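Retro notes
What went well: the complex prediction finally ran end to end.
Inputs used:
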Amino acid sequence: MPVPVVDLLNKALVGELTVIDHNGGFRTDPLIPLWDGRHILMTSSILFSRKLEDIKRNPRVSLSLSDPVGVPAQPFSRATIQGDARVIDDGLHQGWYRVLPLWEAKEPIIKTLITPMQKLGLPLFWERAIIEILPRRVLWWPNGDTTRDPEVTDLQEAAT
Amino acid sequence: VKLGDALARLPGFSHAVLIVPDDDGYPLSVATAFRVIDGSVEVTPASTGQRAVRDTVEARLVVSHIRPYPGVGYDQRRYIELSGALSVVGSAWRFDPQAARGWDEKDLSFPELCQRALPQARRYLAALSTERGYEVKPQMAAGWRFFLATRLPFLTATIVPVFLGLAAAGYDRHFSLGLAVLTLVGAMAVHLGLNVANDVFDTLSGVDDVNFTPTKFSGGSRVLQYGLVSLRQMISGGWGSFASRSVSGRSWSWARTSCRPDTMRCGR
């Protein structure tokens, strides 16, 4: 993963995740992207689980880091990451806690929202799956100018 | 989201993300500038390298916004996804939207959004249960489920009047600890049983299922809607509470007629 894109991933409070739905069309949702050094990780509540169903049917996804406000990196740039996603939902209740340190670094308030008392308000929101994306191809636009050609990194080729 | 409403809101966003099919089956997304002109969207051409964007009827245009609170999180969440056809002829691309979906937390609060999404959560859990061959349910510790299902904090509405009555009895020199305990237990059992029965009947009638704006004082405990407790468990819990009330009531009646209120010595 190119270093500037890792920086974007580490700073991003929001990215636009696009999945392929059951009709073959696209469905995009804003989510918090987390980077563990190899995968892009996201969590999704079962309340908003259509994207999870879509990923299980077709793992090909695209993540766009585009918003100068939601991605407060300096200098600002933009990136699109295409990859293969998988849904990890064998521990809906607490399995996703393993990404909590990464999530908390971006949204510190989350720690106070997952106490048993706080969870009572919206218990199903805290039943969550992890979306794990293995990046395949990265497009990076320095300065965020997408009218210019991006720097393209094919991670699949790099791996082989 | 109505298409006209979505188009009217688009200028409030700084940029859009255009999504088109890639040659090898992945979605390809790229940020771009845009402006709305007569019901369609003019999109600034964007470069995606060697894999050029082509005309497609399967394009999406997504706008989103959040306001970060450094060290806390964010608010002002809103996004719109337009689906439609993209034409890339000429110096400005043209996107003709056909449908829109989205969310603005200013119009639809996050708690209400979650309540409206409950059927999707149930579908997902049902599919997961089928896939695994056993029932996958949301989890919560038994104590918290009891707390939620019985709406335990509302017991204060029963306990306070009972204590007032006991204080009055004490003032009148008719206080009996045994009768006081039986009174308190019976009143609490009735209250809890009624709370549970209220949930059962409001779920059976469908009222709670269509209440997307529950508060602490209306809409029930929602443990049935959340799948935290089964209907059978709730009915059993309700009967259990009423049975406890019946036992304590009968005991109270017996003690009141058979025992000396001051010493609670019973029998002749």
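What we learned: Chain B touches chain A through 58 residues (CB under 8 Å).
What to try next: split runs per interface for comparison.
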